[in-house]
Amino acid sequence: MARKIVRKPSAIVAQRLRQCRAEMTRKGLPAYLLTNRHDHYYLAGFSGEDSALLVTKNAVWVISDGRFEESIRNECPWARVALRKGQLPEEIGNVCRRLGLRRLAVQTDHLSLDTHAAIRKAARPTRLVKAPPIANEMRLCKDAAELKVMAEAIRVAEEAFRAACRTIRIGQTERELAARLEYEMARRGSTGPAFPSIIAEGLNAALPHAVPGGRKVRRGSAILFDWGATVGFYRSDLTRVVFIGTIAPKMRAIYEITLEAQRKAIEAIRPGRRMCDVDAVARDHIAQAGFGKQFGHGLGHGLGLDVHEPPALSWRSDKKLEPGMVVTVEPGIYVPGTGGVRIEDDVLVTAAGCRVLTHLPKDIGSAVLPAR
Predict the structure, then answer these.
(1) How many CB atoms are located within 10 Å of the residue 65 CB?
(2) Interatomic CA distance for residues 315 and 321, integer angstroms
(3) Which long-range contacts (CB under 8 A, 24 or more apart) does 275-278 make?
(4) 3-state class (DSSP) for residue 46
(5) What residue ranges do the domains of the chain occupy?
(6) Strands 80-84 and 222-227
(7) CATH superfamily, region 11-138
(8) Does 23 have pLDDT greater than 80?
(9) How would residue 7 be classed by pLDDT, with cut points 50, 70 and 90?
(10) Homologous superfamily of 144-369 in CATH?
């Protein structure tokens, strides 16, 4: 089932499609099948799930089903539409044969083996090839419109955190704190948490990705909050640690080491700097303080439509920072039997250096909350 183009895409979408097609031409690709839902939104403004986007030289096809017919009409009425009655691979095959495609580039990193095999079978005689990371590379650097939405996602997350902190009481569980924080984000416009919120009290904070459970707030608790909001499909991602009433001397020392490592790393961010070199600035500081083995993850990651997207601010990457990239900077120290500290901000790489997009205070004094 197809519908003719009735309007032109927005200026931003049109520009992105031109860039995408230019890359397709350079790489000799007649057609590009995108199965990552966030790429659909980036290149066409389409928000539906369980769908595919097919970009050719002359058209963009949204391959979906009847649940999203109205969404397509509202979000990308200029696109051609194929609404399936069977499985998605079958409809992809129908469109390929209709267009007479000889080759189709597919996002193999967003397809299961079974789905890839089903598309290959349904699309015959079209030959499937692995798509280069065109969309990923386009999304590396954010434009002004994206940064505006991300700023709103940050505002929502920060205001919600302040509000949630005012409600913390002795005896509350990690699960209760998580529910309150996500409620406060929803009140302020978040369409959902950017990821499952991590709230870890005491010893649980030694687990970098702890799941909120039944541990309770007590006087002297150190509570790690890692959370983010989703606004207009874009994410924010922050981490703070708060102390209830008092701070144990060892936790104070760990906090100060982590904070200084983050400060140094942010100061090192600038265009042309290798990701691994920025990671090393924080890692070396933590290692020199005697906690090198307690910092096991990368320094940060790209942020945008996905909460984890390229680039990787890590010892594993020798790629260079570019203006427009937004990365998290989140060193951490995790000591089993004691607890952990991670401090995270969202940082924009600028032409001259960088700009921290998040605004919550993080000095040790601001981290202490009254015991109530």
Answers:
(1) 18
(2) 14
(3) 275/311, 275/312, 275/313, 275/314, 275/317, 275/318, 275/319, 275/320, 275/321, 276/314, 276/315, 276/316, 276/317, 276/318, 278/313, 278/321
(4) coil
(5) 11-138, 144-369
(6) unpaired
(7) Creatinase/prolidase N-terminal domain (3.40.350.10)
(8) yes
(9) confident
(10) Creatinase/methionine aminopeptidase superfamily (3.90.230.10)
